[in-house]
Amino acid sequence: MAELLETPVLQWSAQYFVTRAPRHKALPGDKMLLPPSALEGLLSASANAAAEFSKQSLPAFDPYNSSTYSAYKQAEAQYQDQKQQLPYPLTFRLVNPENGHAVYAGIREFSADDDEVVVSDFIAEILGLPQPNVDDHIPVDDATETNAPTQITVHVKQLPKGTFVKLRPLEAGYNPDDWRALLEQYLRQNYTTLTNKEILVVPGGKGIGGTNEEFRFLIDGFKPDVDGVCIVDTDLEVDIEALNEEQARETLKRIIDKSAKAPGTDAGSSKGGDLDLFRPQEGQVLPGEYVDYELASWNKALPLEIELSADDDGGDVDLLISPFSAHQRSKPTLEEHVFADLDDRPRKRIRLEPSNVELEHAEALFISVHAYAMEEGTTNGDSTSHQQAENPRRFTLQVRHPDPAAETIDSSITASDDPPDPNDTRCKNCTQWIPKSSIFLHENFCLRNNILCPHGCGQVFLKSSPAYASHWHCPHDLSFGSTPVSQTKHNTLSHLPPLHCPSCATLETFSSLSALAHHRTTTCPSKLILCQFCHLTVPQEGDPDVPNAEALLSGLTVHELADGARTTECHLCDRITRLRDMATHLKSHDFDRLERPPPLPCRNAMCGRTQDGCSKKGDTRAGSRMGQGSGNDLGLCSVCFGPLYVSLFDPEGKAMRRRIERRLLAQLSTGCGKIYCSNTFCATGRKNSGILPGGVGIKDAMPMVKPLLDGLGKGKDSALWFCVDKGSQRKRKLAEMLAAEGVYGFAWCAGAVEAENGELDGSRKWLSNWAPTKVEEARR
């Protein structure tokens, strides 16, 4: 009999019209969307396959044979278990009947419209589908003869798990050390299947102007030897081989050239590192690369100036800054930065004020120096210019706190229209001060040879100079420059075709890299944050087009809002509280801490207890609430008062005074006999402390006891000296030691030691949780 645990083969197919997803909802990798009716059909096919498999795997039913009866029962149980289950992962084979092209794919969701399948760009390219407008979604009902959608056939196909794949780069220069980790991550996140002999495109970094860097590979064979494999939940070994020997030699040559320009070499960019406030940092950067620095600490109460000076009038070297904090984790780039100076000047300067909200909670500053890479054609075919474009740019980076005295002097110097000399007058063309005696000759010469920029920038040029010929003003903003490279750089960075964020699905478009950088450092759902609840670096999530009102009001990101909904116990009161409400909940404890009544220490100078008892949860009247208070008016705790208690009516307290007197006289004359006693009003304690003679006679003891008895009628400020147990005596000394530190009063220290049963670390923690400091008590 066949094994009942084998999986039945699922068979299902259907035809759908192909629809391309809009740009902002593009599907990754080999993913597609099917309609909900496809899921119903798959479940029905799964149930039929399970039933057919159960019938074929059993012998003929014999009602008089108990073994066949139990086998049928087992098959029925397996059928009930499998009829509503689908294999994981679901994989499909898509075929375009018009050209015969086929590809394997995985499913993203069952959310497409009826009779439609939404496919990714990867699938559409392999199937040879036409390229529609990138932002158009053409429904089937509106299709015309010219834009009629293609109908394809979708088959469910259970693929074997792949164990090996061979990839061949289509271009020379790919370095496996650079993109192997990128390849593994990209396949894991975007692909369910791989199809043999197809082109795999792996996006890399993003270049100037929003152009993607891509790695293209030919998929050239699997193990097992099939047309397609599943790469989910399997250890896939990847082997990268050059397409031919010529490509292998070219790749090796490019790797050697790249290693010659590695960071830290003479021909490469500097390595970056830590910055010093008191020393300028010199370095160099290759065009198109970044040199990253970090400023770990500075005086956050003072302004901070970051100045970048480039050699050889290098206006193509840019300064980028991003603070490093819980809500800003990425290093600055052209597409993702908080502060930047991209102007066409050899000297860049950014001033950060202490009140800048972007610096709030900043742990460090990431500072990057970037060199603009000129596009092809900007060197006009000059080999010397091309060589200069490939050379590293030298720069000096200086971070400092500006001198307030120097700023005061600079601010006092204002521009004046008064001539430096009373006999001077200003030229109307070049605006220079000229002696009145020669102004006529100067203006004649100046008007023939010089020209003032008519666009209002105030620059004066020789009419025949190359600088005037290449001088430009941007028609869209107030930017200007005097070189073709500066104009190209400005247009490339500030006036681009509509850009989409490469990390999220927002509908918003951006016309400049600065606008895109602002989006990626503020509302982009893919911006990385350090979650204050799960303590992981995760995307902040959310919808940038429809902000979450609760997240805006709470100051949390959407991820933190969801993650903070988890509950935990308050470590102070054991109350179940949401994580995002814990800060407010702890503030309520802080208010209670300031209003809580202080403990009342026992009047006995040797005792470390309080009159009403303190609990671990900060209650300074815990014993009295439970009926375990002192129960006396002497200010003694219940333990110290116990030996003095008798059931005698004594409204004037005369009998109580006699009992106290007898006990003190007995201590001074005979002692308590305890080897640990340090009570100076006890013969044993005096002997242990080295006070001679240890015992005191009644005649000498009376003058010592009388002041204590006189203090009974003067409130509870005067102390009594009764011998106590070793633990209480130790707690008293520990409380006095904590009080001597000067942070908390003695009463609170005594309550803390009593609540924590004499543990020093626990007592300090109790004080920080429940006790106000002396300064806070003085303010009340």
UniProtKB/TrEMBL annotation:
Residues 83-133, 161-242 form the Ubiquitin fusion degradation protein UFD1 N-terminal subdomain domain. Keywords: Ubl conjugation pathway. It comes from Cryoendolithus antarcticus. GO terms for biological process: ERAD pathway; ubiquitin-dependent protein catabolic process. Residues 268-401 form the DUF7590 domain. This is Uncharacterized protein. GO terms for molecular function: polyubiquitin modification-dependent protein binding. GO terms for cellular component: VCP-NPL4-UFD1 AAA ATPase complex. Residues 404-423 are annotated as: Disordered. Residues 662-688 form the Ubiquitin-protein ligase E3A N-terminal zinc-binding domain. Belongs to the UFD1 family.
